[in-house]
User: Fold these one by one.
Assistant:
Number 1:
Amino acid sequence: MYTDRISKYPAILIFAVLIILSLGVAWSMATLGMSAAPLILLGIVGILMLVLIIKDYRVGFYLVFLMGIFMFYIDRMLNISFPLGTVYDGLTALVFIALFIDNKRRRDWTLFQNPITITFGIIVCYQLLQFFNPNSGSHVAWLVSLRGNASFLIYVVCFQLFSSLKEVKNFTAVWLVVAAVVGLYAFYQEIFGLTDFEWEWMNSKPERIDLYLIWGVMRKFSFLSDPSSFGIFMAASALACLPLALGPFPLLKRLGFGLLMIMLMVAMSYSGTRTAIAMIVVGIVFFMIITLWKKEILIGSIAIAILGAGMLFGPFYGGTMNRIRSTFNASEDPSMAVRDVKRVSLQEYIATHPIGGGLYTVGHNGERYAPGHPLAGPWDTDSGYLLIALESGWIGLIIFQMFFFLTMWTGIKGYFSTDDPVLKTYMLVYITPFLALSVAHFTQDSMFMKPVNMLVYVTYALVIKIPSFQKKLSPVELV
């Protein structure tokens, strides 16, 4: 028999190859142990994914997004020492390469004709010039830091991928479905507790228990790396649901988005991350201001404000509620006091080093890649802006802040430049969490932690792309 549609080779040859492969797997398991089976399976899956990505770079883009969410859970479950972060960066580079191999789709070269790309390019060039920073003392640290420039590759991919509103809707749907799954697993951890391998991971570092156990309540982290990244991801996803719940969609969809938003906010509260709570407040205030001319928005905003006041001042107690309330009483919070002292103590270094101490020379990264550097040591900056200022100097900090401001400015201008309610809604879906993340970056390295970093890169592209979409949508697209 011959299978003309699949192959020119006889079926018996295909069966022979499969039998040989099966025997090879069995022999590997017998000689190398049971660990050989999952490694071989991963190899086969990897080859399959490679073929799919080369054929359609969009597959790789979604794989990068999903890997940024589930890679930490896989690492905890399998307890492997393999650097999955390196695989993540390699996959990002592969998607970028596949973008130019895929000749079926037209590319948009207006990419290089907008201020977002120009400013992003300036940031990349500035980081490359850090090679000559005399304060770094380690070219190894600079070389390792180059992996951070994968963000520009993803931005280019996003600019090409989001060629229509349909693509934006598809990614938004994947994002919110995955966020719901992540949130539901946090509910599982809250109700049934952590699994055995999660407890084993928790106990592998004694300081981890001290950090995660607050007021007698274990902070939840779901599939993500830690409670902070989980809480921030939940907050950003909840804020994305807000415009959709009040957008120009059928009532049933709006109710669904509203319920999802509430569920994500409850899951967020299990993380005990006060930065995420502040994000919700900042995002809602921004949304209220930019859409205050709508009656239904005003009514909804009042309802949300009443709900928030009830949580802050109502007769509700416990570790989670105490953590939420402490967000708005930062002046009396010991951890915030420690962060303030740290920031003030480092201001002199920032003022006297305009180009910074060099990339990857601060804290734990410095301890590993630039030992002996004045900024290296077993400590964390906490603040993303502080980290930028220490590594890249106040010049680098100004460039980054200009870039974030330009992104928001472009998004707000794009929001008011279109009269289409659907385009307005999807613009708010992305710039509302972006603004909240840019504020949260003051107390956490929130904008570049996985998987929120992908949402940030997508926003860079969409503030340019969304206003360029067709102004009049069909009735089908409105739902």
Number 2:
Amino acid sequence: MFAAHEAAADGLITAAVEDEMALDAWIDGVLDSVLRCAPEALAATKSLPDLCAAPWNDAIGATTTLSDALFSSPAGVEGMTAFFEKRPPSWSRRWPLAE
């Protein structure tokens, strides 16, 4: 037997928190990260688990093709431009949404 924080440190679970407030803060951080991502890129990541069953070279090729398509898309160009201009991309949202 071991504690949750040990499981997190060993990579068995994503995170361990001490209490409900810490859990809320951790969830807010995850949501903030997700809302900063390009919607098209988030949608495309749903296809990535399917690549786990593919042969290595096929998976690498498919991932490269997907990455190229996403970075050359309008959202990808906007994301890179925003990064270099040190501003949030036009599609970026912040959590909590009520603010």
Number 3:
Amino acid sequence: MNLDLANKVIIVTGDSKGIGEGIVKVLATENAIPVIVGRNETDNLEMLAAIDNQGFQVVAELTRPGECENAIKKIAEKFRRIDGLVNNGYINDAVELENGNYEKFVASLHKNLVGYYLITHHAVPYLKQSKGPIVNIGSKTVETVQGNTAAYVSANGGRNALTREWAVELLNYEIRVNEVVVTQSSSLSKTFKNRAQEVTSIAEKIPFQTKMTTPEEVGKMVAFLLSARSSHTTGQIIPIDGGYVDLDERF
């Protein structure tokens, strides 16, 4: 796409597979320097190998403040700058109201929301220097809900709120903050018990091209929002879903 991201140091947090993999691969094709921050070193290294080691990786559990702080320090020590941040770590862990409990609910908020705050908090001083943008990854469940996912939906609502709050807080530093909402991705479908049946059922309901969104398609939007081509876009929550939520009148 030639988005002028060459040699930009872009952090991508969370799972280095699925959506994270799509983002990292698109950034690599743009000749950026993707920095993978995730809890599993093996997965991180496999992702780096997939892009011919055109990047860097740091092992960190995003729910732990100290590990988030140390991850940012390692990245800053190596590159002396951070040019952008993608918050991507989340898991739909099915912590519900009736059969859930306090401990599981709070743990889910840490996995799905607090980690976004922690890594961003420590990255902001470097993003201020570079005027580097932030892109959060969210889920359509905050719009459509799902049932039996009270904690996950709460965290997604929090991500939407933080995206807009940070966009306002960081205006004076010219840091843009946006969110890409993943509605139905082919990578997320791996969690279904009857995968083939579920994928077909959902794809048939997606208005545009009746197909699941690919991780690469998500990655392309993320790369655009990280680039100067979206220089006057901030505080936006943008669904990548083939019209699944807004256009299908059956829901």
